[in-house]
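Q: What structure does this chain adopt?
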Amino acid sequence: MKKIQISPSILSADFSQLGNEIKRLEEGGADMIHVDVMDGHFVPNLTIGPPVIKALRNHCSLKFDVHLMISPVHKYIDAYADAGADIITIHPEATEDLEKSILRIKELKKKVGVSLNPETKIDLILDHLDKIDLVLIMSVNPGFGGQKFMPEVLSKIKELKKIQLEKNINFDIEIDGGINFDNYKLAIEAGANILVSGTTIFKSNNGDIKKNIDLLKTE
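A:
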């Protein structure tokens, strides 16, 4: 079984102190930094763009796990790669040609992630699983932080894990949305090995980031 990794979402950080918040995450034992990019079009919210990611890059040696919730996504891949993303995750619905977008991310020497919304079927990515590094399962409808976890997506993780073992292909399974101390073990048991969490990491236990990250790694 793969080691459990924690990718804290800076969507829940203090945006006036982002550089310091990222340092706190690094010191607290985070494995990578999850950056949610929203365009107010593909999802109903706006967040940050390449210049902010580029500025934050100087504050952190951890990998930047950049989740692009933007459409059309293909023309922006280069900009986020240049800004310092290490993993670039896209939605199949946000590109006219998923294969082309996957290959472009690989050409830029970045890891490729593909994200599935709660209602998105695995069938959309079956033919691409041998080319991608990570599948991000959304356990909320994307667009806002602090939403309630949707347990029905766990069956999708189990199905992905089964396919992974049957076809002997290697990719990470990441879950994002409402992950907290009550449900994280369910996600791990289903087959996820990367947990994205925002509110729980930044707000629980009086904001003790190290304690919260350690707890989420406890199987």
